[in-house]
Amino acid sequence: MELKKSENANIEKLRMPIRLMGLLFIGSFVLASLTYSTPSDDNSKGAGDEKIADIDFMQQQDQNEPPPPPPPPAVDAPPPITEDIVEEENTEIEPTPVVETPPPVAVAPVEEVVVEDEIIDFPDVEAGFPGGAAAMQKWIADNVKYPQTAIEMNEQGRVYLSFVVEPNGSISNIKIERGVSADLDREAKRLLRKMPKWNAGEAKGRKARTRCRLPINFTLN
Fold first, then answer.
1. Does residue 149 lie in a domain region?
2. pLDDT (0 to 100) of residue 36
3. How many angstroms separate the CA atoms of 38 and 156, rounded?
4. Which residue of 102, 149, 162, 180 pairs with 157 in a disulfide if CB–CB is 3.0 to 4.6 A?
C-alpha cells in the first residue's frame, strides 16, 4: 500500500513538467510550420507561374513560326554519259545559190540624127526643071487635074509655092506662100510632088540645098 502511494505522488510531481514540455513542443512545431509554409508556398507559386509563362511563351513561339517548307520533289536524273563524244566533221554540202538572170531589157534603137545642110536662098547656080521653063510649063499642062469642085465654083488663079531642091534633085519642104482655094492649093502641091527630079543648085563649087519659088496658074478655057 505504501508503494502505490509513493508512485502516485511521483506521477503528480512529473505531470506538470510534462505538460509544459508538450505545450512547448506543440508551440515550437506550430511556429516552425507557420514560418516554413509561408516562403515555401510563395516560392512554389512563383516557380509554377514561371513554368506556366514559359510554356505559354513556347506555345506562342510555336504558333508564330511558319511551318517548315516541304521537301523538294525527287527528280530522277539520268545517269551520266560515260561514253566518249566523237565530233563528226560537217559533211553537209552547201546548196549552190540559184542566180536568176534578169530578162533582157529592150533597148530602143538609136535614131540617127541627120544634120541637114543649110538651105541656101541665093545659090551660085540656080536649081531648075530639066529642059528649062518651057519644058516645065508643058509638063504641068499635061499632068494638071483641075478639081471638079473648083470648076463648078469657077475657081481660078495663080498659086505661089516655095520648096527646097535637095542635092540629089528631089523636092521637099513644099509650102503654100499664097493660095487660091483649098482644092487648087492641094492640086498645086500634088503637081510638085509628082515632078521629075530637078537639076540641083550649086554653092561654092558643090551641089547644095537651094530654096526655089514657083507660081502655078489655074485658068478655065
1. yes
2. 56
3. 173
4. 180
> What is the DSSP annotation of 133-156?
HHHHHHHHHHH----HHHHHTT--
> How far is the CA of 210 from the CAs of 3, 194, 201, in angstroms?
213, 19, 6
Q: What is the pLDDT of residue 1?
A: 43
Give me the residues paired with residue 157 across strands: 218
Give the CATH number of the domain where residue 159 resides. Answer: 3.30.2420.10
Tell me how many domains the chain contains. 2
Strand-pair partners of 175: 162
Model confidence band, residue 25 (pLDDT cutoffs 50, 70, 90): confident
Q: What is the pLDDT of residue 94?
A: 65
Residue 99 lies in a domain: no
Q: Work out the angle at residue 193's Cα, subtended by the Cα atoms of residues 187 and 195, and round it to the nearest 5 degrees.
A: 100
Q: Is residue 156 within 8 Å of residue 150, measured between CB atoms? A: yes
- Whether residue 169 is contained in a domain is answered as yes
| DSSP reduced 3-state for 88 | coil
- Mean predicted confidence (pLDDT) in 103-115: 65
Beta strand pairing call for 206-218 and 119-120: parallel
Q: Is the dihedral angle over the CA atoms 168, 169, 170, 175 positive or is it negative?
A: positive
What's the alpha-carbon Rg for the chain, to the nearest Å?
A: 80
pLDDT at 206 over 60: yes
Domain extent for 152: 119-218
Residue 83 has pLDDT above 60, yes or no: no
Alpha-carbon distance of 177 to 159, in angstroms, equals 8
pLDDT of residue 96: 72
